[in-house]
Design goal:
The chain has about 140 residues and is α+β, with helices and mostly antiparallel strands. The protein contains four helices and five strands; from the N terminus they run ααααβββββ. Helix content is about 50%, strand content about 20%.
């Protein structure tokens, strides 16, 4: 069997863990094996093939790893549940003061109270949700 075919089998073998583990390093090794298969197809010796495999694999890892880390660091924070409601704006439906009231938040009617107990918000005013305590939105 020719050397290039062995390198292609190695590339496929290295591609399997890439899919199973989602580790890009295996992909770079697979690319290095394909480069070595091309070198074997061009008639280069086994030493050149191994050198090409190592150089392409290491270069690929050196380029892909920083890109992957940068992409991972730039992911937006996904908030859900009551954490997603903090910082949102709501509209006052019934007077909200330190003792209670009602707001419309994210299309739903919520009980609310003012963060500053001396402050009151009248119907129609916009307020910011600071915290959610149970089923009550704390607003300012």
């Amino acid at each position: 069997m020719d050397d290039w075919l062995w390198w292609l089998i190695a590339a496929v073998g290295l591609g399997i863990p890439l899919v199973v583990t989602a580790m890009p390093e295996f992909g770079m090794f697979a690319v290095g094996a394909v480069a070595a298969a091309i070198a074997a197809g061009l008639g280069l010796g086994i030493t050149a093939q191994v050198l090409i495999f190592v150089i392409v694999s290491v270069a690929g890892i050196a380029v892909v790893r920083p890109l992957a880390n940068r992409s991972r660091a730039q992911r937006p924070e996904l908030r859900s549940g009551i954490d997603a409601l903090k910082g949102r704006q709501a509209v006052v439906l019934e007077r909200v003061d330190g003792h209670g009231g009602r707001i419309k938040l994210n299309g739903e009617v919520w009980s609310a109270r003012a963060l500053d107990t001396g402050r009151a918000f009248e119907p129609g005013e916009s307020v910011d949700v600071v915290e959610i305590e149970g089923a009550t939105a704390v607003v300012m």
